[in-house]
Amino acid sequence: MTTPGLRERKRQATREALRTAALRLALEHGASKVRVEDIAAAAGVSPRTYNNYFASREQAIVSAVTAGRETRVAAAVARRPPTVRLADAVTEAVVEQYTTTGQHELETLLLITTWSPLRKAFLDASAGIELPLTAAIAARLPDAGAHTARVLAASVAAAVRIAVENWLQPAGDDTSPEGFDTGGLVVPFGSLTDQLGTALAPLAPAFDAAEEQAHPEA
Amino acid sequence: MTTPGLRERKRQATREALRTAALRLALEHGASKVRVEDIAAAAGVSPRTYNNYFASREQAIVSAVTAGRETRVAAAVARRPPTVRLADAVTEAVVEQYTTTGQHELETLLLITTWSPLRKAFLDASAGIELPLTAAIAARLPDAGAHTARVLAASVAAAVRIAVENWLQPAGDDTSPEGFDTGGLVVPFGSLTDQLGTALAPLAPAFDAAEEQAHPEA
DNA sequence: TAGCATACCTGCGTGTGCGCAAGTTTGCGT
DNA sequence: ACGCAAACTTGCGCACACGCAGGTATGCTA
């Protein structure tokens, strides 16, 4: 692993500075009170540059929580031995990464769940696993159809999104009234591990079929 | 005075970081042992960027000492009331700036005098006053010939260079054997104020003549 | 409800940093 | 004295940050 060169290191440093500044300011002053201008100033860059890194004000905040999760999930999949079913490898990898790195501080989690734009951005962030995961799955299915890996990865991302959505079931959200109401507050509904398992289960046959086609067994 | 904008502020910050890093490293490890790469790394930029700011390894070090002197001399000239002779205004301004801001720490001064490439760079730095000084002189001679101010400013720069050169009379330099020999060490020779006065004196008639032509008195 | 102000986000031109490669100088070891 | 290696300096192309201007959403006030 070679050193990425000064340009790339500064890039990552700026990303990280924006992330931490956004989260800090959101915790200090409330998520809805933080302006892009403030985050940029705290990170030492121009507001324009902020939008070169993040497309919305919320992305930087959620990025502080989800940082690197995309590549870690993919790496976790690649780490499983080829002997385990691909469906299991993916599920285990997702659960592993979402449960070990997911729960920073309770305060941060509440910050995200309490403001609906942040919740939305948090859910959208799960789509980020699609590309890295595509590569990891493709490595396991070298002979599969051209788009098989992409479709499977995108499906996993969608399933994860739904799992997290259910987990963060917002109280008073009439489209899913089973949420736990705590006076306007939003609380996790059930265990994240269970939600992920349930959401990913329906995809297992698709993985099995793709694997079957790739390595037709005797 | 408006805020110069983020881009310009970062520029100046980089300049300053390079200056201080260069001086610090030179004091710590010896001037001849400092590589451009080290200075750049300490300032957080690439070696290529160092040479965007300074044309030689020595310039950053001397720049740490002469920082801003160019504009301050010009400002000091502009500050004198129009009633005083231009020749006196310039001389006073030069002496004022070179004696009040010139002597940082003795250690730094020795650093510069002990290594001849640094001495040379230090002397070359005096040419930097030419452009700002041109503007200041031109402001006092609005009706003079097109190049008069430039010529006078360049002459002042040359005179200053000679004054400083005499002041730093290197021991054992055969071209000027009157230096004070201290076993290979280089020591100031006479007072800087005197040297500047002596070097600038021959230019006074030129200033007087230019002023005369600009404001023909009764 | 209409108008207005604030903040967000994006497109575009320009300035600057980075990386690389080439030519040169400097100092050292053979 | 010669060759070699390390360091310096500069030209060039590319990537990124900045500043500005324009279009949109959101919230407040009259």
UniProtKB/TrEMBL annotation, chains A, B:
<feature type="DNA-binding region" description="H-T-H motif">
    <location>
        <begin position="35"/>
        <end position="54"/>
    </location>
</feature>
<feature type="domain" description="HTH tetR-type">
    <location>
        <begin position="12"/>
        <end position="72"/>
    </location>
</feature>
<protein>
    <submittedName>
        <fullName>TetR family transcriptional regulator</fullName>
    </submittedName>
</protein>
<dbReference type="GO" id="GO:0000976">
    <property type="term" value="F:transcription cis-regulatory region binding"/>
</dbReference>
<dbReference type="InterPro" id="IPR009057">
    <property type="entry name" value="Homeodomain-like_sf"/>
</dbReference>
<dbReference type="Pfam" id="PF00440">
    <property type="entry name" value="TetR_N"/>
</dbReference>
<dbReference type="InterPro" id="IPR050109">
    <property type="entry name" value="HTH-type_TetR-like_transc_reg"/>
</dbReference>
<keyword id="KW-0805">Transcription regulation</keyword>
<keyword id="KW-0238">DNA-binding</keyword>
<dbReference type="GO" id="GO:0003700">
    <property type="term" value="F:DNA-binding transcription factor activity"/>
</dbReference>
<keyword id="KW-0804">Transcription</keyword>
<dbReference type="InterPro" id="IPR001647">
    <property type="entry name" value="HTH_TetR"/>
</dbReference>
